[in-house]
Amino acid sequence: MSSFGVVVFPGSNCDHDCYHMIRDHFSQPCRFVWHEETEIDDIDCIVLPGGFSYGDYLRTGCIASFSPVIESVRTHAEKGKPVIGICNGFQILVESKILPGAFIRNSTLTFVCKWTNVVVENNNTPFTRGLELGDVLRIPVANGEGSYYLDEEHLADMKERSGVVLYYSDTHGNKTPESNPNGSIENIAGICNDRGNVVGIMPHPERSYDTIQSSTDGERIFSSVISWMQQF
Amino acid sequence: MKQFKAKVEVKLKSVVLDPQGKAVLSALHNLGFDDVTDTRIGKLIELKIKGESMENVHEQIEQVCKKLLTNPVIEDYSINIEEAS
């Protein structure tokens, strides 16, 4: 059995959804990790959940990136252990520079809460190893400042090293402007670090793993990392 | 130690799209201000800070900007300091 830790920041609101999914759907050990904790060695996979940590003050994810737990998450990541940031969790990973880039306000100027399709670009991460390249997953997004940005030079580097994990696409996997919910650069929906063990995604797999949620595609992200951890 | 007042202006880099600015520009055009050709929205952060000298305070605020107030991937900033009376 591999254990999960779901980090709770003031203003996280998808923490219980993640916890419920991991404990009750996947039957894996899981505990909440308060943002002031620093002892997280008992945990194999860290989940930074969605929400509005610190009310999105200053920049989304910014204040949370200075939480005591983040330095432990950085060490956890440097050991090659899996970390996933979902939505606000992804924004926190970016603000803490564990992942590259930044987030800006949605091009629509609205909060976007809708179903999206994402196409798999990199299946060489713990979270996507159970997927095929080109697979299209139907997973919802919910964000106001979810538009991912990276300058041209770094974007080229990222693509070169297969740093993009998911792109927003149509149902056939084509990266169309219409399928991009928030103006994210080049339709980027998820990225990873150089080693691939840290993944940030905007869509919410914890809102699409159970048959009552109208799509179960999000289940494949977590079943991937569970099977990855079972190798050790 | 002297007291200083500092203003930090944070702007999105010119290459980064500013949807808020675009929305305001279109509202201005709707109101008939057709001569306005661009609008970009930033932040103004005011700080009160103690320091030995203007240079010393400037250095501290540079650090504050780099570590917290701005994200160099998307933002530029400028600093304006005056001695508080």
Concise description?
The complex is a heterodimer of chains A (232) and B (85). With 232 residues, chain A is of the alpha/beta class. Chain A has helices at 15-25, 68-78, 88-95, 152-160, 219-229, and strands at 4-8, 30-34, 45-48, 83-86, 102-104, 112-120, 136-143, 147-149, 164-169, 188-192, 198-201.
Describe the structure in your own words.
The complex is a heterodimer of chains A (232) and B (85). With 232 residues, chain A is of the alpha/beta class. In chain A, 22% of the residues lie in helices and 24% in strands. In chain A, strand 1 (4-8), helix 1 (15-25) and strand 2 form a beta-alpha-beta unit. Chain A is globular. The model of chain A has no long low-confidence stretch (mean pLDDT 97). The longest helix of chain B has 16 residues, at 54-69. The radius of gyration of chain B is 17 Å and the shape is elongated. The model of chain B has no long low-confidence stretch (mean pLDDT 95). Chain A binds chain B through residues 58-59, 62, 66, 95, 100-102, 104-109, 149-151, 183, and chain B through 12, 15-17, 19-20, 23, 68-69, 71, 73-74.
